[in-house]
């Protein structure tokens, strides 16, 4: 028993050390980004580097926020991420409810064909999607940025799996009481689906805020760029201003950090929602 206890304690110590090392590997780049953003411009390339800036300054942030189009890029990112999130929640919750609780011919076939589209690399669909947006006249517009991301197969899969775990007896009881289909959906299904909707909303907003490839392709003017695309323009300057670049990256990361620390409990639910019995 004593040997087993020591072995268990040893495994616990090893696991703790491994977790600390992995956490440090994840946090150090983020920490260095913030430190560089607050350093004097002349100290960003010094060696050895200063892990704790002696004279922190907001000069890099002031220069970044004074750049043309920065606030426009931020507004574009907010509009695109928020609109796609709301639209995807609306579409995916209705599609998930239909696939989970409604009976119609070919339901399972349609569902798995749609979910199977997640296995198609996004790069494969870029050219036909661009051609479609071009024929619709949506190049360099909010429509072109938003519409392709409205109906995501991952969101439909997530909501279908979540709603499959909801008791069907509640829906049948509502019908017996004379509740209409719309009232059943809005007053019973939606309130019970709040955890799944929260998870999907967080994942969608974060994904759209960080989206790079499609906004780069569909926009061709500085005024329509999103923040991730705008930040890449800073890397093209000669000489490269690392303090300015890190200030921009820190500015872009702030909304993600706020969302993460405010709703981190929902991220744990996001790991298990797709594994619910359905």
Main traits of this protein?
single chain; 278 residues; mainly alpha; MetI-like fold; 2 domains; 14 helices; disordered C terminus
Query: What's the level 1 CATH class of the largest domain?
Result: Mainly Alpha
Point out poorly predicted stretches. 274-278
Q: Please summarize the sheet with the most strands.
A: none
What is the total domain count?
Answer: 2
- Helical amount: over 70%
Q: In one word, what is the shape?
A: globular
Q: What class do helices, strands and sheet pairing give?
A: mainly alpha
Spell out the CATH superfamily of the largest domain: MetI-like
Mean pLDDT: 82
Distance between the termini: 43 Å
Q: Which architecture of the largest domain per CATH?
A: Orthogonal Bundle
Number of extended strands: 0
Topology:
Layout: H1 2-37, H2 59-65, H3 70-101, H4 107-116, H5 122-135, H6 142-146, H7 153-164, H8 168-176, H9 181-192, H10 194-209, H11 213-218, H12 227-234, H13 242-262, H14 264-273
Helix pairs in contact: 1-13, 2-13, 3-7, 3-10, 3-12, 4-7, 7-10, 8-9, 10-14, 12-13
Structure notes:
By secondary structure, this protein is mainly α. The chain folds into two domains: 2-61; 69-273, MetI-like fold (Orthogonal Bundle), CATH 1.10.3720.10. The protein has 14 helices and no strands. The chain has helices at residues 2-37, 59-65, 70-101, 107-116, 122-135, 142-146, 153-164, 168-176, 181-192, 194-209, 213-218, 227-234, 242-262, 264-273. It is globular, with a radius of gyration of 24 Å.
Gist of the model:
The chain has 278 residues and is mostly helical. It is built from 14 helices and no strands. The chain folds into two domains: 60 residues; 205 residues, MetI-like fold (Orthogonal Bundle).
